[in-house]
C-alpha cells in the first residue's frame, strides 16, 4: 500500500514537473506578449499616430519593470525547447549575461519613468528604453519556425 | 592494355588542365566579360556612405565587441555548413586592410569575387548580390571606405575542411552561379520601385539570408526571398515575399518602420541576425527605406521552403 502511495506521489510529482516545464514557457511568452502589447501605445505616440498620454506611457514602463523582474526566473534547464519557445540556446550558455540584460532593461525603464513628465521628455527618453528590446532579442532569441 | 593506360593518363592530364583552365579567374572574365572599371575622378562620399549602410559591410567587417561600426578591422567568425570564415580587415590600413588597393581592384572584388592577386573569394562575402552594383556606385563606396579609420591587425585564417579550403575550385562555382549582370532599371516601373529593387537585390543582399540554398550553397532561384534555414545554422529566416506566411498582411509603412526601428507591426522587436541589419538600415533615409518596402510589396507570393526536421538540442 505504502509502495503504491509512494509510486502515485512520484508519478504525480513527475507529472507536475512536466506541466510546470511547459507552463514556464507559456508564462514567459505571455509576459513578453504583454510587453509587446504595452509598447503599442507609446510606439504610436513616437510615430505621431496617437496623441501623447502620460498615464499610458507610465503604464508601459511599469509593465516593462514587472516583466524584467519575472522573466529571469522562467528559464530552468528543462525548458530549452517546446511550446513554440523562441528562446535561444545562448540563454543557458550565458545566464549571467541574460540576467544583466533584464537588469539594465528594468533600470532604463525606471530612469525613464522618473524623467518623463510631458511629451518632450517622453520623446527624449523613451527610445533609449526601446533599444533594450532588439538588443536582447539579437543575442538571446531565435525564431525556430 | 598499355594503350589504355596511356589514354587514361592523357585524359586525366586533360581533365586537370581543363579544371585549371576553367577555374582561372581570367576564364571568368572571358566568359562573362570584364566589368566596367572606369570611374569619374571624384567620388561622391555621401552616396558612398549610403551604400555602406545599405550594403551592411559593418555587419561582417566591423571589429567585434566595439560600438563604433565604422572601424572595419574584421575578425568576426561566420559559421557556415562549409566551415568557419573570418571576415578580413577592410579598413584603409595600408598593410592589414585595403589601404593599398586601387579602385579597379575594389570593383573587381565586389563584382567578380576576385582578389587583386587573382585568388577567388568565397561567396561568404556576398558578391553574388554586390555584383549588381555599378562602377560609379562602387567607386563612391570605395571613396567612403577610405575616409574611415585605419585599423591595425589581420583576422585569423578561415577554418575550412578539404575540399572547401581549395579556392581554385570556386572558379567553377562562379561560372555556374555568378552571372555578372549589373542591375538594369525597368522603365515600366516607377523610379521608387527601381531604387527599391536595386537596394534589396544589390547592396542590401536581403536574399542571401532570406532564401533557401541548394547543397552547392547557391540560392534556389524560384524560392528567392521565401525564407530558409539560417545560413549560420541557428533558426529559420522568415519569408519576405507577399505570401500569407510572409509580408502579405504588412503595409508598405510597416516594412519601412521595421527597417528603421526593428519593430514589427505587433511591436515585437526583430532579433537574431536581423538585428545588425536594422542597425544598418536605420542609418538610411526614409526615401530609401520606403523604396525597399515598395519593391517588397510588389513581389509575387512564394510559399516558404519546407522546414528542416526538428533536431533535439
UniProtKB/TrEMBL annotation, chain A:
SUPFAM superfamilies xrefs: Cytochromes (SSF47175)
Gene Ontology CC terms: periplasmic space
One GO MF term: iron ion binding
Pfam families: Cytochrom_C_2
Metal-binding among keywords: yes
Post-translational modification: Binds 1 heme group per subunit.
Protein name listed in UniProt: Cytochrome C prime
Organism: Alsobacter soli
Automatic annotation (TrEMBL), chain B:
UniProt cross-references to Pfam families, sorted A to Z: Cytochrom_C
Organism of origin: Alsobacter soli
GO molecular function (one): metal ion binding
InterPro entries reported for this sequence: Cyt_c-like_dom (IPR009056), Cyt_c-like_dom_sf (IPR036909), Cytochrome_c-type_DH (IPR051459)
Keyword Metal-binding: yes
Keyword annotations of the record: Heme, Iron, Metal-binding
Domain of life: Bacteria
Protein name as it appears in the record: Alkylated DNA repair protein
Domain Cytochrome c: 43-149, 191-300
Residue ranges of the TM segments: none
Entry-linked PANTHER family: ALCOHOL DEHYDROGENASE CYTOCHROME C SUBUNIT, BLL4482 PROTEIN-RELATED
Signal sequence extent: none
PROSITE patterns for the chain: CYTC
Amino acid at each position: 500500500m505504502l509502495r503504491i502511495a509512494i509510486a502515485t506521489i512520484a508519478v504525480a510529482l513527475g507529472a507536475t514537473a512536466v506541466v510546470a516545464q511547459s507552463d514556464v514557457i507559456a508564462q514567459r511568452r505571455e509576459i513578453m506578449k504583454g510587453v509587446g502589447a504595452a509598447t503599442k501605445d507609446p510606439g504610436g505616440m513616437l510615430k505621431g499616430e496617437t496623441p501623447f498620454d502620460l498615464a499610458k506611457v507610465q503604464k508601459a514602463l511599469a509593465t516593462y519593470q514587472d516583466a524584467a523582474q519575472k522573466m529571469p526566473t522562467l528559464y530552468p534547464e528543462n525548458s530549452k525547447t517546446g511550446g513554440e519557445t523562441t528562446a535561444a540556446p545562448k540563454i543557458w550558455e550565458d545566464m549571467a549575461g541574460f540576467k544583466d540584460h533584464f537588469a539594465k532593461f528594468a533600470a532604463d525603464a525606471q530612469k525613464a519613468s522618473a524623467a518623463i513628465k510631458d511629451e518632450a521628455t517622453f520623446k527624449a527618453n523613451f527610445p533609449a528604453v526601446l533599444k533594450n528590446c532588439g538588443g536582447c532579442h539579437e543575442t538571446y532569441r531565435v525564431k525556430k519556425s | 592494355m598499355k594503350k589504355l593506360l596511356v589514354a587514361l593518363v592523357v585524359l586525366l592530364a586533360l581533365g586537370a588542365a581543363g579544371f585549371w583552365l576553367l577555374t582561372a579567374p581570367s576564364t571568368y572574365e572571358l566568359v562573362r566579360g570584364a566589368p566596367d572599371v572606369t570611374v569619374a575622378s571624384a567620388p561622391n562620399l555621401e552616396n558612398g556612405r549610403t551604400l555602406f549602410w545599405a550594403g551592411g559591410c559593418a555587419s561582417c567587417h566591423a571589429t567585434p565587441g566595439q560600438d563604433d561600426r565604422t572601424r572595419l578591422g574584421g575578425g568576426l567568425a561566420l559559421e557556415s555548413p562549409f566551415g568557419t570564415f573570418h571576415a578580413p580587415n577592410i579598413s584603409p590600413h595600408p598593410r592589414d586592410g585595403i589601404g593599398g588597393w586601387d579602385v579597379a581592384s575594389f570593383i573587381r572584388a565586389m563584382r567578380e569575387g576576385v582578389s587583386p592577386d587573382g585568388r577567388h573569394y568565397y561567396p561568404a562575402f556576398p558578391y553574388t548580390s554586390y555584383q549588381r552594383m555599378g562602377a560609379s556606385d562602387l567607386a563612391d563606396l570605395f571613396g567612403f571606405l577610405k575616409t574611415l579609420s585605419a585599423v591595425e591587425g589581420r583576422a585569423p585564417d578561415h577554418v575550412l575542411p578539404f575540399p572547401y579550403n581549395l579556392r581554385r575550385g570556386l572558379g567553377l562555382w562562379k561560372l555556374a552561379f555568378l552571372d555578372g549582370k549589373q542591375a538594369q532599371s525597368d522603365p515600366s516601373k516607377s523610379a521608387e520601385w527601381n531604387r527599391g529593387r536595386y537596394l534589396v537585390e544589390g547592396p542590401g543582399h536581403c536574399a542571401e539570408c532570406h532564401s533557401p540554398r541548394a547543397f552547392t550553397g547557391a540560392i534556389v532561384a524560384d524560392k528567392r526571398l521565401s525564407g530558409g534555414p539560417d545560413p549560420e545554422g541557428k533558426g529559420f529566416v522568415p519569408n519576405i515575399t507577399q505570401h500569407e506566411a510572409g509580408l502579405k498582411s504588412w503595409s508598405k509603412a510597416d516594412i519601412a518602420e521595421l527597417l528603421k526601428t526593428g519593430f514589427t507591426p505587433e511591436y515585437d522587436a526583430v532579433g537574431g541576425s536581423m538585428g545588425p541589419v536594422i542597425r544598418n538600415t536605420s542609418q538610411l533615409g526614409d526615401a530609401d527605406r520606403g523604396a525597399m518596402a515598395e519593391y517588397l510589396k510588389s513581389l509575387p507570393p512564394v510559399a516558404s521552403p519546407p522546414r528542416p526536421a526538428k533536431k533535439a538540442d
